[in-house]
Design brief:
mainly alpha
Amino acid sequence: MTTNNSIIWCEDMATGVDVIDSQHQNLLQMVNDAYKGLDEEFSEVVFQRITKELLSYAIYHFQTEEHLMKEYGYFEECPEDATQHVEEHRSFSAKVVSARDSVNSEVKEEMVQILEFLNSWIMNHTQNVDLKLGAFIRMKDKQGEYEGSRDC
């Protein structure tokens, strides 16, 4: 069974905030590497390592974004968008933990389903939620030069 469902980073995915884009690229690479790992050496150990690494990095990334939200005043100026963003982070983490705890890690197809969920979530979240945050941060960075319009 081939599991090569790699997502290739493209500039359409960029938020324009270097730290966020770099972390998104790393997260995508981790998911792509996980697919490769499943093709090569699927086992209980591989399953546990993949899910632990992905979840740990995702949480680290979420903390980065949420720190930027606080630093740039996103919660104050765009409270609904900020709340939705954080809720999506929490929901994602809970779903990955639940999936990790409930799947039979010896069934490769179940791990592929988790990776497909991760790919889908990453694409949806980055394109629909993170781009808003990126636009807000870029606008705040440029505010000293000119008055930008709020895009919440």
